[in-house]
C-alpha cells in the first residue's frame, strides 16, 4: 500500500475492514469486544451536519455502529472444489445449526449475502462464546479454520468483497493491486483470473503491491494458499510505484494495466464495529492528513491504467474528504480522460447511498469551512483546495459524483464503506506522449529500499535438469520449460517454480525497476536420493494442478475408498488399494507419482470434482504427501471428519504421525527438505507395516 497512516496498525487503517492481518483472537469468527464506551460527540456532530445518512435514520445508523460486526466468510470461487465446500456447508453444518438451541436461545444459521454471486459469501452473528458452548458449533469452527488454512474459505469482511466484483475481471486482464496487504481482495482477483480451471496459465496476472515489507509477507501467505502461477508480490510506495516495461514483438513497451484496484489507506471510521478503538481516537484531522496521500496514489493508479481500462477506488471511511473529494479532484485533473461509471446494476441486492455533491470541512476544534476562500492562511498546510467540492456548478454536475457508492452499516448489517468505479477514456493530460523510463532514476529509489531477496533465475530450455524430468513424467511437448525458475544462481537447484509466460516477461524486463517479494508456484522439489529412482525431483502438491495438463506418466487413477486409505493410513501396502489402482501401481517403478480421482457422475454421493494428490510409490507401499489442512479438506470431501476435542485430542481421520509428516508450507526464500528426507527414510524401509493410530476413530458420513 502507499505510505501508511502511522496509526493504521491500531485503528484499522482502512483496508479489508482493517483487522485481517491480526490474530484470530482479534478478528474472524466470534472476535471479542473490550468494554469501551462507544461514543464520540465530534463524530456524531460531523456526520449529522454532512447528511450522509438519510433523514430520520441517524439514530439507527449510530445504533448499528455500536453493534458487533457479523463474521463473514467467502468460499473461494475459482477452485473446482468450491461447489463441494458450499454443499458441505449447507447440507451438513447449516442444517444442523438451524435446529440448535444453547441456553434456551435458538441459534441463527448463517445467511448468504444477497448481493454476492452464487451463494459464495455468508455471514453469521454467532459469537466465540457461543461457538465454544456446543460440540457441534466447535466442529463447525474447526472446519472453517482448517478450510481457511488451505485456501478454500476466506474470512473477510463483507464490504471488503465489493471492489474486486466491480472490477469485472476476465482471465486475460493484467491487474495491479496497489495497496494489497493483507490480501483478501488480492485472493479474489486471483480466483477470478482462474475462472476456467482447465486453463493452468491464464493470459492475465495480478501484481500485488504493498509499501510495508512485513505486511508483504501476509500478502504472500494469502496468495500462496491459492497456488497460482499468475501472482507477483512487490514492495513499493504505491504513490510512486515504478512504471514497468514488457517486450512485445521484439520491442519494449510500457506495461499498462487493464484493471487497477486502488484500496487506499484511510482513517477507517467505517470499521468502528470491528476496530472499537476508533471510537476514542476518531478526529477530523485523520482525514485531512490522509487526503493528499490518497489522491497521489489514485493519480498514480490512473497513470498506469490502460485506455478503456477500469479502476476501482475504495476506502472503509465514510468521510467525503477521503472519498468524493479525492474522486472529484481526480476527475478535474484528468480533463475528461476519466469518467465515473454507473455500477448500480452490477451487484443486485446491494444497498448503498449515492455519492454526495456538497460537503464541508471541520477541524478537530469544531471549526467549519464551506469553501477554500474561508480557510485562514495559517491552515493552508493542513487544508488544501482539493478537499472542497468544485465551485463551478456545471463542472460539478458533469462529474456525476452521485455514481459513487457509500455503504452504511445499518442498511445491511455491514461495516461502512465507499467505492467508486472509474473508466479511462484517454491518456492523462500529462501523459499524452509515450512516457520514457530511465533505469538510473529507478535504481536510486531501489537503493533506499535495500533489496535482499533471493534472485529469480529462469531456466533455459537446454538446462540439464529437464531431460530426466521430461522422461520420468513423460511431459507433453508443449510443456513451457521457459516458465520454470529457481531461487539461486549457484549450486544445486532445490526447488523449481513456475510462472505464466506473461509474468516471465515482466520479471525479465524489470529486474532493476522493482522489488519482487514472491512469485511462482512450486512444482518440483529435489529428493536427496531421488536419482536412484530415475528422477531427482519429486512433485510438489502446491503445483500439481498447474502441472496436471502436462504429465502423461506416473499417474494412478484412484477411487473414493482409495482416497480414504491414502489419507488415513500412514504408509499403506499397495494391496490396501482397490483392485484397479493396485494393478496400476504395480506397473510403476519407485518414485514420485500423481494420485488422481475423477468424479463419477453416476454416483451423486461421491465428490463431483477432480482430486489430484502427490504421492510416492515405494517398494511395497504407497504414500500421499499432502499438507495437513489440505489432507483434512480432501477427507471431508469423501465423508471422513477429523476434529479435536476440548483437550486437543484428535477424533477420527488421519493419524497424528501422518499429519506431522505432511509437507509444510514453505516460506519465501527458505529451503525446506524435511519432507524430502523423511520421504527418503520411509522408502528405505518400504516394507514397514502400514498402520493407523488405533486411539482415533474414523467417522464416515
From TrEMBL:
Residue positions binding S-adenosyl-L-methionine: 179-185, 210, 237, 263
| UniProt KW tRNA processing keyword | yes
One short Pfam family name for this protein?
Methyltr_RsmB-F
Q: Which SUPFAM superfamilies match?
A: S-adenosyl-L-methionine-dependent methyltransferases
Tell me where it resides: Nucleus; Secreted, Extracellular exosome
Could you tell me where the Acidic residues compositional bias lies? 664-681
> Domain of life, per the record?
Eukaryota
Question: Where in this protein does the record put region Disordered?
Answer: 1-27, 646-701
UniProt GO molecular function: tRNA (cytidine-5-)-methyltransferase activity; tRNA binding
- Record-annotated active site: 316
Residue spans of biased composition, Polar residues class = 682-701
UniProt main location, coarse: nucleus
Per the record, what are the reactions this protein catalyses? a cytidine in mRNA + S-adenosyl-L-methionine = a 5-methylcytidine in mRNA + S-adenosyl-L-homocysteine + H(+); cytidine(34) in tRNA precursor + S-adenosyl-L-methionine = 5-methylcytidine(34) in tRNA precursor + S-adenosyl-L-homocysteine + H(+); cytidine(49) in tRNA + S-adenosyl-L-methionine = 5-methylcytidine(49) in tRNA + S-adenosyl-L-homocysteine + H(+); cytidine(50) in tRNA + S-adenosyl-L-methionine = 5-methylcytidine(50) in tRNA + S-adenosyl-L-homocysteine + H(+)
Alphabetically sorted, this entry's keywords are: Methyltransferase, Nucleus, RNA-binding, S-adenosyl-L-methionine, Transferase, tRNA processing, tRNA-binding
One GO cellular component term: nucleus
Per the record, the GO terms for biological process are: tRNA methylation
* Residue span, SAM-dependent MTase RsmB/NOP-type domain: 61-425
Does the record's keyword annotation contain Nucleus?
yes
Listed InterPro entries: MeTrfase_RsmB-F_NOP2_cat (IPR049560), MeTrfase_RsmB-F_NOP2_dom (IPR001678), Pre-PUA_NSUN2 (IPR057285), PUA_NSUN2 (IPR057286), RCMT (IPR023267), RCMT_NCL1 (IPR023270), SAM-dependent_MTases_sf (IPR029063)
Member of which family? Belongs to the class I-like SAM-binding methyltransferase superfamily. RsmB/NOP family.
Official protein name in the record = tRNA (cytosine(34)-C(5))-methyltransferase
Q: Which organism is it from?
A: Astyanax mexicanus
Amino acid at each position: 500500500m502507499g505510505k501508511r497512516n502511522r496509526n493504521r496498525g491500531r485503528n484499522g487503517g482502512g483496508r479489508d475492514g482493517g483487522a485481517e492481518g491480526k490474530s484470530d483472537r482479534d478478528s474472524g469468527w466470534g472476535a471479542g469486544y473490550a468494554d469501551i464506551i462507544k461514543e464520540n460527540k465530534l463524530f456524531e456532530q460531523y456526520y449529522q451536519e454532512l447528511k450522509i445518512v438519510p433523514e430520520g435514520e441517524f439514530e439507527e445508523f449510530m445504533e448499528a455502529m455500536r453493534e458487533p460486526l457479523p463474521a463473514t466468510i467467502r468460499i473461494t470461487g475459482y477452485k473446482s472444489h468450491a461447489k463441494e465446500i458450499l454443499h458441505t456447508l449447507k447440507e451438513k453444518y447449516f442444517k444442523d445449526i438451524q435446529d440448535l438451541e444453547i441456553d434456551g436461545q435458538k441459534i441463527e444459521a448463517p445467511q448468504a449475502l444477497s448481493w454476492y454471486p452464487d451463494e459464495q459469501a455468508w455471514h453469521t452473528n454467532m459469537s466465540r462464546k457461543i461457538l465454544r458452548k456446543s460440540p457441534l458449533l466447535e466442529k463447525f469452527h474447526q472446519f472453517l479454520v482448517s478450510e481457511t488454512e488451505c485456501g478454500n474459505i476466506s474470512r473477510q469482511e463483507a464490504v471488503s468483497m465489493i471492489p474486486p466484483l466491480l472490477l469485472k475481471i476476465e482471465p486475460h486482464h493484467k491487474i495491479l493491486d496497489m495497496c494489497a496487504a493483507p490480501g483478501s481482495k488480492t485472493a479474489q482477483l486471483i480466483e477470478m483470473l482462474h475462472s476456467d480451471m482447465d486453463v493452468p496459465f491464464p493470459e492475465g496476472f495480478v501484481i500485488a503491491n504493498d509499501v510495508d515489507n512485513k505486511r508483504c509477507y501476509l500478502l504472500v501467505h494469502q496468495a500462496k494458499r491459492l497456488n497460482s502461477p499468475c501472482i507477483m508480490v512487490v514492495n513499493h510506495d504505491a504513490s510512486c510505484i515504478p512504471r514497468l516495461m514488457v517486450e512485445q514483438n521484439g520491442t519494449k513497451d510500457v506495461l499498462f494495466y487493464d484493471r487497477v484496484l486502488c484500496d487506499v489507506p484511510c482513517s477507517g471510521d467505517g470499521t468502528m464495529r470491528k476496530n472499537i478503538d476508533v471510537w476514542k481516537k476518531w478526529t477530523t484531522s485523520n482525514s485531512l492528513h490522509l487526503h493528499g496521500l490518497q489522491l497521489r496514489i489514485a493519480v498514480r493508479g490512473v497513470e498506469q491504467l490502460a485506455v478503456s481500462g477500469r479502476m476501482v477506488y475504495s476506502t472503509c471511511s465514510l468521510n467525503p474528504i477521503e472519498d468524493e473529494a479525492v474522486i472529484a479532484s481526480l476527475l478535474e485533473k484528468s480533463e475528461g480522460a476519466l469518467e465515473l461509471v454507473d455500477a448500480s446494476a452490477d451487484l443486485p441486492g446491494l444497498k448503498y447511498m449515492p455519492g454526495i455533491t456538497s460537503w464541508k470541512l471541520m477541524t478537530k476544534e469544531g471549526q467549519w469551512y464551506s469553501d477554500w476562500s474561508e480557510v485562514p492562511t495559517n491552515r493552508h498546510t493542513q487544508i488544501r483546495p482539493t478537499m472542497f467540492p468544485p465551485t463551478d456548478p456545471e463542472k460539478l454536475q458533469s462529474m456525476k459524483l452521485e455514481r459513487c457508492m457509500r455503504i452504511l452499516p445499518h442498511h445491511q448489517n455491514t461495516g461502512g464503506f465507499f467505492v467508486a468505479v472509474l473508466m479511462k477514456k484517454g491518456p492523462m493530460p500529462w501523459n499524452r506522449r509515450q512516457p520514457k523510463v530511465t533505469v538510473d532514476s529507478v535504481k536510486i529509489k531501489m537503493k533506499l529500499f535495500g533489496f535482499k531477496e533471493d534472485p529469480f533465475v529462469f531456466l533455459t530450455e537446454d538446462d540439464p535438469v529437464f531431460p530426466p524430468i521430461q522422461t520420468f513424467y513423460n511431459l507433453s511437448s508443449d510443456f513451457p520449460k521457459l516458465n520454470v525458475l529457481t531461487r539461486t544462481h549457484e549450486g544445486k537447484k532445490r526447488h523449481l517454480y513456475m510462472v505464466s509466460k506473461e509474468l516471465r516477461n515482466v520479471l525479465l524486463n524489470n529486474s532493476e525497476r522493482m522489488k519482487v517479494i514472491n512469485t511462482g508456484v512450486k512444482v518440483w522439489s529435489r529428493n536427496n536420493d531421488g536419482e536412484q529412482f530415475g528422477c531427482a525431483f519429486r512433485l510438489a502438491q502446491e503445483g500439481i494442478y498447474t502441472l496436471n495438463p502436462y504429465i502423461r506418466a506416473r499417474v494412478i487413477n484412484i477411487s473414493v475408498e482409495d482416497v480414504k486409505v491414502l489419507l488415513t493410513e500412514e504408509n499403506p501396502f499397495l494391496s490396501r488399494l482397490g483392485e484397479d489402482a493396485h494393478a496400476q501401481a504395480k506397473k510403476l517403478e519407485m518414485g514420485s507419482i500423481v494420485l488422481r480421482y475423477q468424479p463419477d457422475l453416476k454416483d451423486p454421493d461421491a465428490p463431483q470434482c477432480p482430486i489430484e494428490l502427490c504421492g510416492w510409490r515405494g517398494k511395497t507401499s504407497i504414500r500421499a504427501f499432502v499438507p495437513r489442512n489440505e489432507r483434512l479438506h480432501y477427507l471431508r470431501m469423501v465423508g471422513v471428519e477429523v476434529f479435536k476435542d476440548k483437550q486437543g485430542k484428535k477424533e477420527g481421520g488421519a493419524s497424528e504421525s501422518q499429519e506431522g509428516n505432511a509437507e509444510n508450507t514453505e516460506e519465501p526464500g527458505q529451503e525446506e527438505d524435511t519432507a524430502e528426507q523423511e520421504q527418503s527414510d520411509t522408502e528405505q524401509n518400504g516394507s514397514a507395516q502400514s498402520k493407523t493410530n488405533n486411539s482415533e476413530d474414523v467417522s464416515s458420513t
